[in-house]
Structure prediction request, 577 residues.
Amino acid sequence: MTSQSHHHDEFLKAYDAYSDAIFRHCYFRVYDREKAREMMQECFMKTWEYLSQGKKVDNLRAFLYRVANNMVIDYSRKKKESSLDVLMEDGFEPMGQEAHHTTLAAEVGQMLTLLDKLDKKYQDAVRMRYLDGLSPREIAHVLEETENVISVRIHRGLAQLRVLATQGAA
Amino acid sequence: MDHQGLHNLHAHAKNVSLTADEKSAGREMLLSYMRLTPHRAATSMAAAASVSAKKKTSFFQHYLGKPASVMALSMLVMFTASGVSYAAEGSVPGERLYVVKIGFNEPLRSALSVTAEGRAVWEAERASRRLAEAEELARRGTLKLETRVALDEEFRRHAEGAELRLAKVQHRKGEGAAADVAAHIEGTLRAHRQIMNAIVEDRRQKKLAVSGNAKAQGSNVLSNDIVDDADDSQVAALIASADREITSAERRRGEKEKERETTGSDAARTFAQGRRDVALARISEVHVWLSDRGSKLSAEALAATSSGLADANEAIIKGNAALEAQQYRDAAAAYAQAQRVAQETKLLAVASERFKVNSFAAMAAAGSSDDENDDDERRNDDRSREANHNNHTEETKTGVRLKFLQY
Prediction:
């Protein structure tokens, strides 16, 4: 097995393992399936470009999330953000065809709408914790913060969510 | 806020995932991309691991898997696969790297186009590339019938593909996205028509100059520099092809513009505003290009680019007035014209830099991009042009001259 093949195989294993998760990370921010696929693909290609220059990455999964997160931020800056509220009023279903149960889809949609309204500084941490399923330590790697800072952001984000939920119910 | 609900969010979110086909296609594309950008550490690792210190393992032996002497030298002089890919972009039929351009670069870019708009624009870009290759060959005086027919067929195939994909964009993404792509395609086709006319006119001038010199020297024998009439007829055939596509694009645009509401609705206003934003972005792109490359243009080409931008801005002003007056259909049409003119202006400027043929003289002779152009009027227009045979297409990233082979 040549070295090039070895590098290819290793990276393709990462693609097999993380492509779905990175796609979801992008999808639940841009709410456009095709765009999310494009971003996921570009994320892996940019990561490969970085690795192919011989640079080291300690935590590939965190690195991929970081690249994807930066792409989402760039995309949001270029495009006028439509809030999930407005999209859903136009009939958009964030869970798409995969949501078989109307009640489930409504609940998830409601939660996503609340997440959308969080302060930006808490949103990333809470999304990665509860949508992407990352641990505070992993989130800290992605956002290049300490674990403690991330834990505080998650805690404060949850508190804000509770307030938003109460206001919404009122 | 139900904490359990939040905890379940991750499980529910997993229902959104790639299909097996999407994942597989992405994997293939990624592998193709990785092959184009090989891991540098692998080559040095291979060299370090080599038992024999005498024979250093070359990058090409690892990457290409065959003796360096076998592969075409024009590929092996490049240090990285990305350099090969880059150099291939400027190749035309008959050159070794054309195989890389058509067989490698373009399929890879096709795979990279995931969105509906991306696919439609890329299909139009492929049509445009075939025309650009024909233009380059015509400029060199080497556009033969067989090559022209092949390029023309490919041009029409991709133009039809772009039209089909445009319909999909309309269906999936709505009118705004489709109008953006349609204006891009039409602007590109118009620019190519102007470029081809400019090349023919340039060759006509050259022919006049050469035959004038021959007469002055009392010679009846034409020099080796005489321009081949056969090439002109090939370009004329391509202009006819481009004209057909432009006519189709104009008809589609006309139909869409008639369908749109004249006044009133929020949707019509939003559409017009969307067209304005896109047109302003295209104009801005031309400004950026100009600030980067403007110094390479001739004074005439620079003046013509500025004039093209002025025309685009005038269309914006017209659109703004119509928007203010709530004439949304007229506003959208004006903004779409601004976008087309900006697109055309940029392509003509790029061609002027590349070919050193004054494409803009043909454009100026023809008038604005929406005029009904009469080819005879253009040819009778008495303008002098510089004919510069500096061959930019022979410059590659590494400065290696490629050997041209006849196809």
